[in-house]
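Ticket 4471: requesting a sanity check on a complex prediction with adenosine-5'-diphosphate. Repro inputs:
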Amino acid sequence: MTKIVAIGEAMVELAPAGGPDMYRAGFAGDTLNTAWYLRKLMPKADQIAYFTAVGHDAMSGKLLAFIDAAGLVTKYIDRRDDSTVGLYMISLTNGERSFSYWRGQSAARRMLESDTALRAALQGADVAYLSGITLAILPDPDRARLLDVLHDFRSNGGKVVFDPNLRPRLWPDTKTMTNAVMQAASLTDIVLPSFEDEAAWFNDPAPEATANRYRNAGVDIVVVKNGPDQMLVAATDQSFTVAPTRITDVVDTTAAGDSFNAGFLASYLGNGNLEQACVAGAGIAGQVIRQIGALVDVQTELVTDR
Ligand code: ADP
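Returned structure tokens:
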């Protein structure tokens, strides 16, 4: 039995729903998306837990019910009296999407005021999964607390998997973001960055530079995703590229990276083959970007070789 704990923030999403000023409420979040796809792709006997905090209000309750209905383990999710779930709204102006956020009152920002709950969640776990957004939402001392827990988790044989998911708007400045991301990477076994973001914020001239930077920080396996272009895999004893299948009918790239990570991990944890894992990740992401929305139906055959 494999146990994975994804750590992060899930939010209420208000998306345009046809008519003027009509919106549909859903739930989304990068780490939740990955956990959601992992649940679909991993064998039933495995446990996929989501670690976050929510409030006691009705919307927090609905989010919890949503995570539970997805088959994810919710027992480590704290319910707080002092906060609620974050909210973002997608506005469409002449076909262009823009985002407004209300996340100051988010309970997830307070999920590491103490490390007791996360230590309990990681008890007996094989993999901890987090992203740069998980780091970004935490106050400095709480982020340090998270990294301490991950350090101890690794000392006990756990593996840490990290998607830098660089979102400068969530950080006071770029330097703080890049420092925090590299600090987390130094405690990480597998890093799954997207080249476009890394080029923008680390000034990497090519995917090789991204891979080298993380490898030099001590990461065992780096997979640099690059949209429709080939992925670069750099590991201790091998380095190679894998081209995703060309997809011409892309409708919505939301969660491409998140679902790739799930396909990659589910396959890699199954048989340890990095190339197959990239093909599996790209296969899932390729299905996700041909449909509207972050959480969509996917065929899972690609990942069942275990
Ligand atoms: P993110 O969503 O994090 O920015 P990327 O854009 O790098 O991530 O895409 C993640 C993965 O999704 C890619 O490695 C690839 O497998 C797949 N993908 C994304 N865009 C396309 C595309 N246009 N055609 C085929 N595959 C794609």
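Notes from triage: The CA atoms of residues 39 and 71 lie 7 Å apart. Leaving this open until the requester confirms.
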